[in-house]
Amino acid sequence: MGGGGRPRPGEISLAHEGVLFLDEMPEFQPRVLEVLREPLETGEVHIARAAQQVTFPARFQLVAAMNPCPCGYLGDPEKSCGYECEKAKRYQRRLSGPLLDRIDLHLEVPAVSPDTLLGAADGEPSRRVRERVLAARACQLHRQGRLNRELDAERLMEALGPHKAWLTGVMERLELSARALHRSLRVARTIADLAGSEVIRREHLREALSYRQNLLKP
After folding, report:
1. Mean pLDDT in residue range 26-50
2. How distant is the alpha carbon of residue 146 from its chain centre?
3. What is the CATH number of the domain that holds 28?
4. Rounded to an integer, what distance in angstroms lies between the CA atom of residue 96 and that of residue 82?
5. Residue 82 falls within a domain, yes or no?
6. What are the two backbone dihedrals, phi and then psi, of residue 163, each rounded to the nearest 5 degrees?
7. 215 assigned to some structural domain
């Protein structure tokens, strides 16, 4: 966060307009993680001292990684610690709901088999992905003069069109907060741009919402 007698920028300000990567996220102290909430929302961090108050920029992209259980083998029939439910739940509770609400994409990465790991790569080349991302970015700036991450709630609702009734039911079923909904809509708008679609379609909304899965399966 930064600080000191003469306030200096911390890691989140040094990562401004870049990426802040937190490995093994639950191992950070909860009070450290919780102070990320406001900067993730506003793009700024405020440091108050007796003599002065300072505001530093802190608009960073947060990327975090974690094992779902301290043993590192949750769900593995051979290596699991055997405390699949309670031990993993206690570990994951170190991340609060309000903090997780501010993370747009929650992805589970299963173990990779040796055959897949050592086989020929079949993914899309980074160069081609970069071209598609740049095209989507240019589309956003041309359409609205700003990136999708900067769209307010009113502008997001305008883009929903005929999906509002369907989305109301989904929001109630998934128990989404207003913040989670708006963040999912920004993701859906971006998915549509990457697909070259001028409108947000139902499949774009479904994909965006699928990234808000719980860390633990019910």
Report:
1. 90
2. 20
3. 3.40.50.300
4. 25
5. yes
6. -95, 0
7. no
* Domain of residue 73, residue span: 2-103
Alpha-carbon dihedral angle through residues 207, 61, 42, 13, given to the nearest 10 degrees: 170
According to DSSP, the β-strands at 2-3 and 61-64 are unpaired
- Contacting residues for 215 by C-beta, under 8 A, at least 6 apart: 68, 92, 95, 100, 106, 108
Distance of alpha carbon 136 from alpha carbon 60, whole angstroms: 20
Question: Which tokens go with 62?
Answer: 């947060």
Domain count, the chain: 2
Q: What three-state secondary structure class fits 57?
A: strand
Question: With bands split at pLDDT 50, 70 and 90, how would you rate the model's confidence at 3?
Answer: confident
Calpha distance 43→194 (Å, rounded): 25
d(CA 157, CA 105): 20
Residues 6+ apart with CB under 8 A from 213: 106, 108
At 112-169, the pLDDT tens digits run: 788 888 877 777 889 999 999 999 999 999 999 999 999 888 888 888 878 888 888 8
Shared domain for 138 and 55, answered yes or no, is no
Domain contains 109: no
Residue 144 is predicted with a pLDDT of 92
SS3 9: strand
Among the listed residues 112, 111, 32, the one whose alpha carbon sits nearest the alpha carbon of residue 64: 32
Structure tokens at 176: 């989404």
Phi and psi at 50, nearest 5°, equal: -60, -40
